[in-house]
Amino acid sequence: MVSPAQPAAAMAAFARMVKGQVRNYSAPLDMAIPASKQKYIPSSGSYPKGFLVSGTHVGVKASNTKFPDLALISSETPCSAAAVFTTNKFQAAPVQVSKKTLQSRQGQGIRSVVINSGCANAVTGKGGLEDAVNMGSKVDECYGLSEPSTLVMSTGVIGQRLPISKILDKIPTAHANLASTHDAWLTTARAICTTDTFPKLLSRTFTLPSSPGRTYSLAGMTKGAGMIHPNMATLLGVLCTDAPIDPSALQSLLKHAVSRSFNSISVDGDTSTNDTVAILANGAAGGAPISSPASDDYTAMQDILTSFAQSLSQLVVRDGEGATKFVTVRVQNSPDYESARLIASTIARSPLVKTALYGRDANWGRILCAIGYTQGVAPGTVVPERTSVSFNPVDGSPVLKLLVNGEPEQVDEERASVILQEEDLEIVVDLGGGEKGEQGLGGEEAVYWFCDFSHEYVTINGDYRT
Questions:
Q1: Which residue among 56, 234, 276, 381 is the active-site one?
Q2: Closest to 217 in 3D by CA, of 134, 172, 157, 282
Q3: Is 357:325 a contact under the CB 8 Å cutoff?
């Protein structure tokens, strides 16, 4: 005998289950870009000369029946190339293969980057290494090249072998579809996405001191939404420029840029096995090659590349799994850069700080705790009596001081709540060690970008493989 209350209870339980499957901040099942993320999609671009790209559907995951999941980025001429890789000890097959290719070619003569999404080809043994080699070789065949000239990247689930035959069969199609249009670049950026809710693509033009009348272009795409924390993250990135840069200079320029961009972001504090950021420079726009770190062109290129990489990496944070907030933490007046960076990193990965921000709770004590337990900072960096913490609203209104020289402020909770309702927030930590500090310990600053932790993050990662 079924009581009247039982059907009602069953319906309520079903409604709760359905509600739990609604993902407000993650990629919709139909891959439609959420309305709130549309503003990050460029409608046009200024792309570097001599580069062609394509995004092709393979179906690496059986559930993907129509979306592009194979990206090919190629130069019409050989390039200088450089890359920064994950420090995870379980480095995926494509990481190992791409490292070897760059080393054997000494950063010269690279033509392409091929990327699949849907399967990471990580922890896949000797067979996985063979698959990565074969991906690169298949692209090289399209150009009639016998030596390895292609970097390989993969992203997706760890511990599963690639459907390599399907991928190899589609590489000639990807090569045949190469184009230089904005739509081609955008489709290629989409092809490397996994749990991303939108493709991440940027481009810009610039000049160099030695050739003020010559216009160069820089373009880049990246993917990542979860397992994001240096060094580096479940993150792939490819940058291309038509500026002429020697391989040794390119590697040092990229390393500097990544340390202040892709290695200064955090979504959840996890790092993965496949992370790679690579840059290709084909010199197609002409001019004198950048080689010496002492040159004006090198200094200018360093600033340009770092700024560009920061903008690109910030899109990863804005697309953090389940994220509702984009947070900048700025640690000022530290005796050295590395100490400031360690403190910023600790705040960025604190679950208690991140959940408080999600709950719009100005619980600054959690920030202070993270500062206080940061490991590895230089002695005397953190002195409670010199430490100040504040919220810096993005609307230009006055700073909300929370702690000043170790003394708590009377916080206007209503105003704090209003500030925390905004998507963007800046947290400023002043260690008091700059020129105005009592001991004048120095004035170094480090900046980190991170997001909050929401219920959605648990939902996404609780059923990632299902």
A1: 234
A2: 282
A3: yes
CB of 354 closer than 8 Å to CB of 382: no
Percent of the chain whose predicted confidence (pLDDT) is above 70: 86
Element (H, E) at 281: strand 276-281
Q: Model-level pTM?
A: 0.86
Residue entry with tokens 């009581």:
3
Residues 6+ away with beta carbon under 8 Å from 441: 333, 334, 335, 380, 381, 433, 434
For 64-115, the DSSP string reads: -SSS--EEEEEEEEEEEEEEEE---SS--HHHHHHHHHHHHHTT-SEEEEEE
First to last CA, the chain: 37
pLDDT in tens, 293-312: 999 999 999 999 999 999 99
Structure tokens at 33: 């870009």
Known binding-site positions for substrate: 194, 223, 234, 321, 461, 466
Please count the other Cβ atoms lying within 10 Å of the Cβ belonging to residue 466. Answer: 4
For residue 221, the surrounding DSSP H or E stretch is: strand 211-223
User: Whole-angstrom Cα distance, residue 336 to residue 446?
Assistant: 9
Q: Convert the pLDDT of each residue in 235-251 to its tens digit.
A: 899 999 999 999 999 99
Using an 8 Å Cβ cutoff, are 228 and 460 in contact?
Answer: no
Instruction: Give CA torsion, residues 229, 194, 133, 138, to 10 deg.
Output: -140
Q: Answer yes or no: 86 catalytic.
A: no
Binding residues are 194, 223, 234, 321, 461, 466
CB 95 within 8 A of CB 276: yes
396-413 per-position pLDDT tens digit:
889 999 999 999 999 888
Cα 202 from Cα 204, distance rounded (Å): 7
